[in-house]
Structures are given as structure tokens and as C-alpha cells.
């Protein structure tokens, strides 16, 4: 397996860059379909809107400091190295997740962007589910649309993802406590700790307060 270097990543990214992925006519038709769908199937509308919006800047460039660390870290795992022990890293979940994705779809920037795109779309659906528990009418769509429009740097989404997952599990547990939901809450909290320590601490505090 060839070693991925920052120079190769940049060259690969340039090769992937295609202007006008979605023709203008398709954007207009898609926008009309979203407007028609938004009242009947808002989750589907959010999904379609998210896909179109994210594809519009899918090849947005490369940050060698943070995104490069994620790419090279996942590549290093495929070569038998371990986060922290063998190379500098954040908590390990993101690297192992991307390395597993590499195993299935091949390594490189394209695979990483597809993984991040899927996480963004899943997070938007969870944000919509959370907002439905507290908001009514069109207001329940606002948080999800805001998240889709301003997700922040894609390679930094693991922190907010861990918060969204653990918050969803916490709401499920509060509404109807059960052993299975307590296990789910513990699992998402553990994942948060292994994704970003700060996210895990937040999830632990919220879980503790919910159990009182």
C-alpha cells in the first residue's frame, strides 16, 4: 500500500475538483421539489437539501494541519500504528472510523469526504428529531437548516457529532427511562469521550444530572 503524503493528498484533491457538479437546471428543479416536499416530508426535504448543498462545495480545499492529521492518522492505522502511542493524535475514534472506511472504499481524500458527508446528513436528521421534541410548526425545521447551512469545517465535525449523538440518547432516556436506553446513553457517552474529551465531559455531566 502506498504511503499518503501531503503533496499526494493535494494532487489527489485537485484531480477530484470538478466545476459545476450540479448543473443550474438541476438546482432549480431540486429547489422546487424541496419546497413541495417540505410540508409533507420535512425529513426528506432536509436530506435532499443537505445533499445538494454539500455537493456544491464538496471539494472545498485542504487544511494540512487538522484535516491532514486526520487523513495521515487513518492511513497510519492501516499500516499498524496506534493513535497517541505511535503518532500524535486527538482521541482515537475518528481515526479508527476513517481507517475502517478506507478498508471498504479505499484510502484518500474522496473516501474521507464521503464519510464526512454521511455524518453531516445523519447529524442534520438527529438535530431535526431533537428540535421536534421541543418546537412546533415551521420552527422545528430551523435548527436543522441552520446546521446544514453552517456546519463548520467538515473535518472538525466529530466534536459536534458526539454532542448530538449523546444528546439524542439523553432525550430518549429522559422521556422513557429503561435499561436499554440507559445502555444507549452510556454507549454514546463513551463514544463521546473517545471522540473528544470535552464532548465526553459534557455528556457525562448531562447524564449525571438526568439521573438525579
Descriptors:
single chain; 212 residues; mainly alpha; 69% helix
- Helix and strand sequence: HHHHHHHHHH
How would a crystallographer describe the biggest sheet?
Answer: none
Mean pLDDT: 82
- Which structural class do the helices and strands define? mainly alpha
- Count helical runs: 10
- Low-confidence segments, ≥5 residues, pLDDT <50? 9-28
| Beta-strand share of residues | under 5%
Inertia-based shape? globular
Estimated helix fraction? 55-70%
Terminal-residue CA separation: 52 Å
Would you count the extended β strands for me? 0
Q: Using only CA atoms, what is the Rg? A: 19 Å
Question: How would you sum up this structure in a few lines?
Answer:
This protein is an all-alpha fold and about 210 residues long.
Explained architecture:
- It is a single chain.
- The protein is mainly α and 212 residues long.
- 69% of the residues lie in helices and 0% in strands.
- The protein has ten helices and no strands.
- It has helices at 6-16, 24-37, 42-55, 67-78, 93-105, 109-132, 142-149, 157-175, 179-195, 197-211.
- Helix 3 (42-55) runs antiparallel to helix 6 (109-132), helix 4 crosses helix 5 and helix 8 (157-175) runs antiparallel to helix 9 (179-195).
- The longest helix has 24 residues, at 109-132.
- It is globular.
- The N and C termini lie far apart (52 Å).
- Residues 9-28 have low confidence and may be disordered.
Amino acid at each position: 500500500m502506498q504511503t499518503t503524503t501531503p503533496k499526494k493528498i493535494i494532487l489527489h484533491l485537485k484531480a477530484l475538483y470538478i466545476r459545476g457538479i450540479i448543473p443550474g437546471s438541476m438546482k432549480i428543479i431540486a429547489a422546487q421539489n424541496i419546497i413541495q416536499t417540505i410540508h409533507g416530508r420535512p425529513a426528506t426535504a432536509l436530506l435532499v437539501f443537505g445533499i445538494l448543498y454539500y455537493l456544491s462545495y464538496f471539494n472545498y480545499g485542504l487544511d494540512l494541519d487538522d484535516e491532514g492529521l486526520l487523513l495521515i492518522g487513518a492511513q497510519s492505522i492501516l499500516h499498524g500504528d496506534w493513535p497517541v502511542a505511535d503518532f500524535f493524535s486527538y482521541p482515537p475514534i475518528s481515526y479508527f472510523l476513517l481507517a475502517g472506511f478506507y478498508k471498504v472504499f479505499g484510502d484518500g481524500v474522496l473516501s474521507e469526504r464521503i464519510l464526512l458527508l454521511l455524518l453531516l446528513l445523519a447529524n442534520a436528521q438527529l438535530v431535526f428529531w431533537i428540535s421536534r421534541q421541543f418546537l412546533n410548526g415551521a420552527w422545528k425545521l430551523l435548527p436543522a437548516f441552520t446546521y446544514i447551512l453552517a456546519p463548520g469545517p467538515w473535518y472538525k465535525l466529530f466534536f459536534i457529532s458526539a454532542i448530538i449523538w449523546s444528546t439524542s440518547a439523553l432525550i430518549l432516556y429522559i422521556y422513557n427511562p429503561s435499561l436499554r436506553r440507559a445502555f444507549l446513553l452510556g454507549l454514546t457517552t463513551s463514544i463521546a469521550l473517545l471522540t473528544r474529551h470535552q464532548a465526553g465531559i459534557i455528556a457525562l455531566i448531562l447524564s449525571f444530572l438526568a439521573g438525579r
